[in-house]
Amino acid sequence: MTPPIGRPTTGPPVLNPGRLRCDLARRTILEGRSLVKTYRKRNLETPVLKGVDLNIREGEITAIVGKSGSGKSTLLHLLATLDRPDAGEVWYDHQRIDTLSAGRREKIRNRQFGLIFQFYHLLPELTLLENVLIPHMIGGFWSYWTKRSQWTQKAVELLDAVGLKHRLRHKPNQLSGGEMQRAAIARALINDPKMLLADEPTGNLDEENGQDVMRMMMDLCRQHDVTILMVTHDMQIANQADQLITMVDGRIESAL
Ligand code: ADP
Ligand code: MG
Hints:
8 helices, Rossmann fold, four-stranded antiparallel sheet, binds magnesium ion, six-stranded mixed sheet, alpha/beta, 10 strands, 26% strand, 256 residues
């Protein structure tokens, strides 16, 4: 059984099995079918996605790379149900999700997906511990209140797992960029998501910090069987993924 996130696991860490893994049995968990998206503002049309098909397989790490403006963030937003396609479909776990009501999409997002963005999105007036607990707080005050000691223990374990146990009471502005992003990873994992969707999580960090953060994120997710879909500009990181998708001008040029 997969241990809950934040609980230290025993045994050696699973190092990158790489794209050579012959595990053809892995099933698709998230899928984009013929996705099309055009932004419209008054009479200005910006076609961004021009028919994108992709399969994310359960338990794998998928990296999306491509030049700035090629549509990577737009694609991630559609897959995370933060926005809707003009045409095409998004499927999660055998269910079409792009056509669900806003409330049901939000529920899937909160329960199944952990989201990480380039600029952390930590609330400045809250401590790190409180920031990590936010997904539980917005999940319902009563359930949060009745289980708060259990959630708090889990948040502490997660912050410990990302090396921040000594910073529980610090506010985000008392931390470095790398520390803030590690806290954002802990927050994204607090609800035991099935998937982590990360948009250039190290885009704001120097190379060394970025690699540390990525390694931590990938190790944690592998330990707990969380599927990763990430956009990154770091080819060294991208090359460690199980699937590498290259986007060019709103289309997938290659998926290896
Ligand atoms: P990437 O993440 O690959 O850099 P994006 O998906 O953010 O690319 O953006 C693709 C294109 O869509 C860019 O040219 C960008 O300017 C445009 N774009 C993104 N968001 C909007 C928006 N809300 N309104 C209009 N154009 C947008
Ligand atoms: Mg982007």
